[in-house]
User: Fold these one by one.
Assistant:
Number 1:
Amino acid sequence: MPNRAHRRAAARANPSQKQTHKLPTQRCLLWLPASGGYLLRVDPIAHTFTTVEQPAEAWHLDEDEAEAVCLVFRDLTGLPATVRPYFASSQG
């Protein structure tokens, strides 16, 4: 029976057999309650933004990116924004 040192040495020798338990990246969108829609695009130079009503048409970001964009959007516009998870519908 291999001890912990043997298991660690085997894992280092065979990194392809090492199992990871990472969760898949969560896709998110930004909800803008003041406009009643989801963020589609931002133009920081012109200080404009576009929203859409349907989540499927909105700007999809990874969770970390969405948090960063949300903070920058709040700083630029002063408007409230929240990050919401996006679950793609399998219905066509």
Number 2:
Amino acid sequence: MEGKSYCPYCRLELSGDRHLSDIAAWDRYNCEYRVSNSDKPPIPELEINNRKLKHLTTQKNAINKRIRQLKSRNLELANWRKENPL
């Protein structure tokens, strides 16, 4: 199974030597990348996926940390409320 490849400038998917959608590449990024006319090689799908995984893992860790902080704070508040009824 061969993976996809992506433009090294705009990160849009390539189809052969060109963008999968030349119109989207131009409209969004003014990108005219062609594999045959560039010194930069396309980015393989595996590399793109690894970058995304790293980013998502970082986000997940930050979210989990915040969840632990909120649970701890809620526990503190619940204990304070038990000790100081209205």
Number 3:
Amino acid sequence: MAYSENGIRMAPFETFSEHSKRAWSDEPYNEDFIKKCREKAVEYDNEDGFTQESALYQLELCVPMHYRAKVLEGTRDLSRFKQHLKDINFKY
């Protein structure tokens, strides 16, 4: 299970200190956070195989649904990866 604080899921690139500050701020999903997520999505998309899909999936989970299209635009389709997680009954 991914770490969350105050109902805010920790991003894979955040430290615990950064996440705690973001989780207790008035605007946890500010423009800087979304921009950093987009940069990381592009970086993760350039990685190889399973690491790539896993990192993108973790990133997707920490971003609210209304920002996901903006953050993940142009990156690899994760539908097969998500289906694989369902097939093996993996709870994330």
